[in-house]
Here is the input.
Amino acid sequence: MSGEKSIFGLSAAGRRGMVLPELDVPADGSLEELPAELLRAELDFPEVSQVDVVRHFTRLSSLNYHIDKGMYPLGSCTMKYNPKVNDLMAALPGFAQLHPRSPDRLAQGALELIDRLGGFLAAVAGMDATTLLPAAGAHGELAALMMVKAHFRKMGAGRTRVLVPDSAHGTNPASAAMCGFDVTEVPSNARGSTDLAALGKALDERVALVMLTNPNTLGLFEEQILEVIELCHRAGALVYCDGANSNALLGHARPGDMGFDVMHFNLHKTFSTPHGGGGPGAGAVCVKHVLEPYLPVPRVVNEGGAYRWSRDFPDSIGRIHGFYGNFGNQVRAFTYILALGLSGLRRIADAAVLNANYVKARLAGAYDVAYDRSCMHEFVLTGKRMARAKGVKTLDVAKRLLDLGYHAPTIYFPLIVEEAMMIEPTESESLESLDGFVDAMLAIAREVETEPELVRHAPHTTPVSRFDEVEAARKPVLRWRGAEAAARPPAKPAKTKEREAR
Amino acid sequence: MTHPYIPLTAAEESKMLQACGLASVEQLFECIPEPIRKAFQVDGLPPGPLSEPAIVSELTRLAGANWACDRLVTFLGGGAYDHHVPSIIPSLLFRSEFATAYTPYQPEVSQGTLQAIFEFQTLVCNLTGLEIANASMYDGATAAAEAALMACGANGRDQVLLSSGVHPSYRDVVGTYLRATDREATLVELDTTGQTPHAAVAGADVAALVVGYPNYFGVIESLAALRRALDPKALLVVVANPIALGLFAAPGACGADVVVGEGMPLGAGLNYGGPGLGFMAVKESLMRRIPGRLVGMARDHHGRSGYVLTLQAREQHIRRARAASNICTNQALAALASTIYMCTLGRQGMIELAKLNYHKAHYAFRALEGIEGVRAVFPSPFFNEFAIRLPREPRAVLERLEREDGIAGGIELGGDYKGLEDALLIAVTEKRTRQEIDRLVAGVRRSVK
Here is the structure.
């Protein structure tokens, strides 16, 4: 085991973790009259004391790596410091205990915050309006694609295609497909940018939207962005900016000024809300006037100083969330923006971009940079040479980093770089911290030369070693089945090819 | 002056620029075409950093402009409920190890998150009576929408029956998602008992029927009867309140193929409706179609048992345009809150909690029904929420309850349901005391006299 039993394994009949309020009203006898088939027969839940619960989850937590412990060089994920004051502000009872069905007259503070945060983001984006309803970046992409679809439907244009570069995040084509669009991939050029000629060839009167990431997933600013967007607009298509990499642009440049029609921000990347082990995040979609009528509802409107939710937008795509998105994260992002102001946001981009270039410069000798030009907030290495010469893959390098006290970078993405390692230090790391990471990477590069086996079988110091993920997917066990699971024959220790070679 | 979130000093900046062979930070941004940099202008943002006391003061002012459940006794429900959040939840949830960890793509340093998700999946399966549960969705409404899309994909049909007893906002979200792929939802109106009529769903060549359990009016519908009436190929998708499942039959045991719902009542708090917690459980046959992340057991190279993200070939980062869904970031931390909650309450606690909710709501219902001119909208069994008709305009009654009694008395139904302009939806959780319920009843009596 990884060291911690299942909570079901800690269960003992009769234990309890909490005392509930007493029943202080007479029962009306109606429960006894209900037909038995409507009622539950049994509930297989653990019975544990409060001490058991606290210790179980505290012990589990100790098995995690996290940003408060150390650096995450995860490209495109922007794992920056999550300020504590954000969490405290989101926990204020006036926010945390506010019921979402409260009449607007009882929620004026929340509505003001939503309205102002939307304004902040539109200003940073250079756009005209914002929706904070999406619960994540991919949710924002989906909402934007629905808006684009509604727009062309209203114009009577049969535009059914979406173009994405081959370096795009997987969510871009997945969101487009979920919206019923045909997706075409456009190849990048030798400099890692959008290939104008290939784009021109792919564009026709059926293209509704071109989805770009800028800076792109190679960490490179699209040098010809003005020409690219003009080309799209001339073909009658709208242009989307996947704002996952917005950290690089804060206080320096605005997607709206580049000509983008619509974009999303990941509040859990650029605006510091915690990742939570996979979520909740928050997406925000900013649009130019052309798409504003289609924004999802409800929208906050301000009439004579009083805020209210309105659904009175006949061209809207409709609702995309049961309530108002991940409000708790909206409070955090708002707090973050106040804590930085415009000058602070600009300094974030300065530091994020300088940090990335510094790490790239220091690693450039020992590793190969995929596109060796000035990067923005992240850059991509290729482990192709190590893989060929020494049989050490990018995966092995990533796992060895875990031994040395760092999280792995994003690996095998973008797909257009063989054995890719994508590194984004963010502005949160000090020079000592960056040097520590670089030294670890350089030590691994030396190990690849002298002790490749050590790297190939890493990690060695983590609570568990590498898993047999193929076997896990072949016979999936997706829930605790008590004795049944324990009775499974123990799997043979997997023999990797590398081990057999040894 | 450096900013507390940005360690970089001026001296380090020079040193690092030198290492990069650069003279200034500005040079790093020269890859951005000049017209774009020249056009840069941001209005409406605070120009510089605020101090922490100033931030706290501003946020406290905004929070104070809300009338939350700390200041009003609430009987609001409608998809969000004022349940107690055990103190150990915030204490465990905001441990840095959970809150500031990334998605567990590196299982060797993420066993804490992975095992917690595995336990979440198990608890959701046991609660719903189904075999496979995912690691979470954005909220109950989007989980319902994804279930509808999954059903269309599973049986190759395009029409979804949507009971009018499903939360109105959820119905809107399902409609939005279906419209995007030119599919449609057909509304099935509740009958006069507040149940989805079996005859209306029978024999139709549809992808799925979506019903609420309890439905928006708190009514417990007969799932087994709906399953019997429904075409065998069509999926029965149940939108369930997880608290109710401590008392009422597990939908999986009644023939549901998919159970989704909003997990916020399980200790995630209200937070003005988000972070929500969508959950989704399905029959085993839908394992390779379920959207979202799945955690499975695995063995490491030393034969030790542990947990990994598995069946990732369904997901966007592998399958791209052919993925089961575009979902990536989910609601993991809210799922952890609910896992801690379900473990803390445990087997007995979940049953007792559901009974408390049931009895308190019924006590309130009987007392309100006893007021002259007040009557039930539906005669069916209900859980912790019910609809009543008032002899005067609900808005006036609610405003007087707020003003004079400090009570948020319920939700007006007229906006969402024609013919219910005189009706209120009232929810009663375990937190409401007899005294508070009596105050509500007295306030309503006074207002309708």
Observations:
- The longest helix of chain B spans residues 332-369.
